[in-house]
Design a protein that fits this description.
Elements (H helix, E strand, L loop, with lengths): L1 H10 L7 H32 L6 H18 L1 H10 L2 H22 L7 H33 L5 H30 L1 H21 L17 H14 L1 H31 L7 H8 L17
């Protein structure tokens, strides 16, 4: 029996042999790194350049956090209902294209020298808000695509790998963003973020996903409100999902709050040069990747 199991395991290719999963993962990883560099760069841009000598700089940085968080709270819960009705591949392509265009517009404004600090910060708020809105549609479409291109028994391992790379981006991204910002300027950081969405777009375009088989029994069409209410009821009926939802919300808020606070207050309190932000942020988020490696070695039964 052991021989039969070993033969079966040799015949079953690993996740890294799955071309579509590797393409999707590479695009997601590049996009995640671009997002973290983008968020850190905007915070430094406001704290060090745009509003460095103003008393309302912390409020402006808090506005960036609010612009990124509001879509998560109000758009995220309803985005999944629309994604279920739409073509997943086209949804991801549209989300990446819109994010690349939006960041490119913000990049173009950096070449206009007559903009006041208020206008610059207002445009940053709008761009961050729109990018976050697109992310709320991209994320569920990506998860659905993983279910289409990965075998059911390997999906937990695929989710672990995806989360591991996202956590690494959260750690390495700020460490790269600070030297990038102070070394070559905000324009290069914005350019890298826009290009990350382009790379993700081409990766998604190359993925050959197949829709999951549908239930042969006809399903009565339901309204958006009914589907949304069913989803909320399902979420609230599961203690595990309720706990995970609260934990994710608090975790995301804490991570964003830590990065925004450190980038503004640490140089002032500790008389630390802003360019040293990379090593400081690295010490704040090591818990993001602890425990991610154990699922990688697990094999489906």
């Amino acid at each position: 029996m052991a021989t039969g199991q070993s033969v079966e395991s040799r015949e079953s290719p690993g996740l890294l042999a799955n071309r579509d999963f590797v393409l999707l993962l590479c695009g997601q990883t590049v996009s995640n790194f671009g997002d973290i560099i983008f968020d850190t760069t905007l915070t430094l841009w406001i704290a060090v350049r745009i509003a460095a000598t103003t008393a309302w700089a912390p409020v402006a940085i808090g506005g960036v956090l609010a612009a990124a968080t509001l879509p998560v709270l109000f758009v995220g819960p309803i985005a999944g209902v629309f994604v279920d009705r739409w073509n997943k591949r086209n949804t991801k392509l549209a989300a990446d294209a819109l994010r690349a265009i939006t960041v490119s517009v913000l990049l173009a404004t950096t070449f206009i020298g007559a903009l006041s600090p208020g206008i610059q910060i207002g445009m940053i708020f709008v761009v961050v808000f729109l990018v976050s809105v697109c992310a709320q549609f991209f994320a569920p479409a990506r998860v659905a695509t993983i279910a289409e291109i990965v075998e059911e028994e390997r999906r937990p391992q695929a989710a672990s790998i995806s989360q591991l790379l996202s956590s690494l981006a959260l750690i390495i991204g700020p460490a790269a963003a600070a030297p990038l910002f102070f070394g070559v300027g905000v324009r290069w950081a914005l350019t890298l973020n826009a290009l990350s969405f382009v790379v993700s777009w081409f990766g998604i375009l190359a993925v050959r996903s197949k829709p999951l088989p549908l239930d042969p029994q006809p399903v009565a069409s339901s309204s958006f409100l009914r589907e949304f209410a069913d989803g909320i009821q399902f979420l609230m009926s599961s203690p595990v999902l309720r706990t995970c939802s609260v934990w994710l919300l608090l975790s995301c808020w804490e991570q964003a709050h830590s990065m925004h606070s450190v980038s503004f207050f640490l140089p002032k309190i500790c008389t630390l040069p802003p360019c040293c932000l990379d090593s400081s942020v690295q010490r704040l988020v090591p818990e993001c990747w602890l425990g991610r490696f154990s699922p990688l070695s697990s094999r489906p039964e």
